[in-house]
TrEMBL record:
Name of the top EC class for this enzyme: ligase
Name the record gives this protein: Acetate--CoA ligase
SUPFAM superfamilies per UniProt: Acetyl-CoA synthetase-like
Record domain AMP-dependent synthetase/ligase: where: 89-480
Domain annotation AMP-binding enzyme C-terminal: ranges: 550-628
Biased composition (Basic and acidic residues): 656-665
Family to which this protein belongs: Belongs to the ATP-dependent AMP-binding enzyme family.
EC assignment: 6.2.1.1
Gene Ontology terms, MF aspect: 3-hydroxypropionyl-CoA synthetase activity; acetate-CoA ligase activity; AMP binding; ATP binding
A Gene Ontology BP annotation from the UniProt entry: carbon fixation by 3-hydroxypropionate cycle
UniProt keyword list: ATP-binding, Ligase, Nucleotide-binding
Pfam families: ACAS_N, AMP-binding, AMP-binding_C
């Protein structure tokens, strides 16, 4: 372990930049310092390098068709299959190598799935999907937890050209129902249950409720089982549309399903994410551009090599897991680790125990997790013998202290670290250093990925000079292969949410179209970007994106509530947590029971992970003269700050009263 002396502490905390370790640089996938220039000078053709990492059935005609912005098309005319690229093409060289190592809740339970096993399972599942009439272009909604069933189902869908729409298992029945309806899925895939902190959780129940709540008529629900048989606590009613996956698989054990040759622009999957309205948006990702982009960034940014054991400790139910547990790593033919349960079950050393057991080389996590590990203390780490070469953080800004702790205690001061900024919409990393090329800077995501053109704009839509050190709106000025195609079924919303604010929407010149990320950022003199956080009504709770409007509409479901506003409160561990300010209907008194109803409404409409930190009953909400709720003022109250400018309010005494109530006087 590293030297613990005070000198080292001082050096660590004062130092602004950290060199990537020499050993790392010596073996890195990208060591050519001209890569940025090459991409800038040869845009967009340079992205062919990415596409060339894949097997194509037919070569593309054009790298980028930008004739109809913002509906850009990548590698047009090309044809390929994602499941072939993640599995079949590796069989000759590494059929016996582990593709996925799955570790269950119990340390005694694990599965090593070789590429050959994965091939067999995915083929059998693809045939099973066909048996229940899933056809090319049907959207299959999945609600699966961290079991091998999830990547197997995704890759089986990809094999037959049916876009999957995975809904994170922690989402509630209602959230699942909304997504089934939005995608109009006839077939849903779920499981009987899984383990949380060692306890079996009946997961099918959520699907039962979702089927009740959904408007769509779901024909079939494919039910995976966590154990060899249906769990005794879980029942299937006679008229239920459930079919046991195991029964179908048994019929298809030796099935071979030819991967469908998909157009590069055919959708691979949908991933719903929160925005500034009450309705989540289905980000639609294409096959060719997306797979090229995540494969290349897995190689260049995550430094994955086929012989590595790579562990991204995220959930596949979010974009991080899609891009960097499943598609990118498997496309490169590496070994990807997945773990079923929480990091502290049954003990706080569980993560490091797994890292030691499989001799993990590359480790990927979130700042929230790092803050939690830091709170638990380094003693849980020091018991285990593991040695990461490379580490990543994603999802939120990381505080320099947390970064230093990660560097020192998890990386042993000899691992390269990248802080990767990106979004569900962007498919893959957009801002991050290439680990061997640039020095690490705690708290900074770093430079743009090659070929990516970020910029900072002021609120009038004018570009702020590069490297100015001034905060503004983070935008991306040129399209990239991993970007979303559209919002599923809603091109207008795609334009409204991402383009309208900084583009000339009447123009068909791509130069006039600029992608709005929704984040604030600073571009420093060193050309490093520091991402500050969301500028819109979207919160980031433990690295999960939550729309304040979605939370507010959940609270509005409670009859006692007349009006509600949600404000984000800074939280030492989760980054941000939601505070709910609520005005009760006439005649309803604040009580624990009302509070519980509000909290349950959020859990039911969205999921437990969205649970409000505080419910604050107030007489009125701060509103402008035109009646718009000023969430910013509530946010200041939640964070113990000054109220700020209240002159535009209809009644400036309203926030003062709330403040006195929350902060005391
Ligand atoms: C939002 C996107 C990308 C996968 C996980 C989240 C924030 C993401 C960083 C980072 C600072 C970050 C942004 C972004 N974010 N990465 N490295 N530093 N902030 O995906 O749910 O689509 O959320 O997460 O605010 O807009 P997501």
């Amino acid at each position: 372990m590293p030297d613990e002396g005070p000198e080292l502490e001082a050096r660590l905390t004062e130092q602004e930049y950290f060199r990537p370790p020499t050993d790392f640089v010596g073996q890195a996938n990208v060591t050519d310092p001209d890569i940025h220039e090459r991409f800038d000078e040869n845009y967009p053709e340079a992205f062919e390098e990415y596409a060339e990492l894949l097997d194509w059935d037919e070569h593309w005609d054009e790298v980028l068709d930008d004739s109809n912005p913002p509906f850009y098309e990548w590698f047009t005319g090309g044809k390929l299959n994602a499941s072939h690229n993640c599995i079949d093409r590796h069989l000759d060289e590494r059929k016996n190598q582990a593709a996925i190592i799955w570790e269950g809740t119990d340390a005694d339970e694990s599965e090593t799935i070789t590429y050959q096993d994965l091939y067999n399972r995915v083929n059998a599942m693809a045939a099973s999907l066909q048996d229940v009439d899933v056809r090319e272009d049907d959207v299959v909604t999945c609600h699966l937890p961290m079991l091998p069933a999830l990547p197997v189902t995704m890759l089986a869908c990809a094999r037959i050209g049916a876009p999957h729409s995975e809904v994170f298992a922690g989402f509630s029945a209602q959230a699942l129902a909304d997504r089934i309806d939005s995608a109009d899925s006839d077939v849903v895939v779920t499981c009987d249950g899984y383990y949380r902190r060692g306890e079996f959780l009946n997961h099918k129940e959520k699907c039962d409720e979702a089927l009740e709540a959904a408007e769509s008529d779901v024909d079939t629900v494919l039910l995976w089982t966590r154990e060899d048989e249906l769990h005794p606590d879980v029942e299937i009613g006679e008229d239920d549309p459930y079919v046991l996956v195991d029964d179908l698989l048994a019929d298809n054990e030796r099935a071979r399903v030819d991967p469908v040759s998909r157009d590069a622009e055919d959708p691979l999957f949908l991933m719903y994410t929160s925005g500034t309205t009450g309705q989540p948006k289905g980000c639609q990702h294409r096959t060719g551009g997306y797979l090229s982009y995540v494969t290349a960034t897995s190689k260049n940014v995550l430094d994955i090599k086929p012989e590595d054991t790579y562990w991204c400790a995220a959930d596949i139910g979010w974009i991080t897991g899609h891009s960097y547990i499943v598609y990118g790593p498997l496309s490169l033919g590496t070994t990807s680790v997945m773990y079923e349960d929480t990091p502290d079950y049954p003990h706080k050393g569980r993560i490091w125990e797994i890292a030691e057991r499989y001799d993990v080389d590359i480790f990927h996590t979130s700042p929230t997790a790092v803050r939690m590990f830091m709170k638990w203390g380094e003693e849980y780490v020091q018991d285990y013998d593991f040695d990461f070469r490379h580490m990543t953080t994603v999802g939120e800004p990381i505080q320099p202290e947390a970064w230093l702790w990660y560097y020192k205690y998890i990386g042993g001061e000899d691992a390269a670290i990248v802080d990767t900024w990106w979004q569900t919409e962007t498919g893959g990393h957009l801002i991050t250093n290439l680990p061997a090329l640039d020095d690490m800077k705690p708290g900074s995501a770093g430079k743009a990925v090659p070929g990516i053109q970020p910029a900072i704009y002021d609120d009038n839509g004018d570009p702020i000079e590069p490297a100015s050190g001034r905060a503004g709106n983070l935008v991306i000025e040129k399209p990239w292969p991993g970007m979303l195609q559209t919002v599923y079924g809603n091109d207008e919303r795609f334009i409204e949410e991402y383009w309208q604010d900084f583009s000339d929407t009447d123009s068909d010149d791509p130069e006039d179209w600029v992608y709005k990320a929704g984040d604030g950022a600073v571009h420093g003199q060193d050309s490093y970007y520091r991402v500050l956080g969301r500028l819109d009504d979207v919160m980031n709770v433990a690295g999960h994106r939550l729309g304040t409007m979605e939370l507010e509409s959940a609270v509005a479901e409670v009859e006692d509530a007349a009006e509600a506003a949600v404000a984000s409160r800074e939280d030492a561990e989760k980054g941000e947590v939601p505070d709910v300010y609520v005005v009760l209907r006439d005649g309803i008194e604040p009580s624990e029971a009302v509070r519980d109803r509000i909290v349950s409404a959020v859990e039911d409409e969205i999921g437990k992970f969205a649970r409000p930190a505080n419910v604050i009953f107030c007489g009125d909400l701060p509103k402008t003269r035109s009646g718009k709720i000023m969430r910013r003022i509530l946010e200041n109250i939640s964070n113990g700050e000054e109220l700020g400018n209240t002159t535009t309010l209809r009644d400036p005494s309203v926030p003062e009263e709330i403040r006195d109530q929350v902060q005391g006087d």
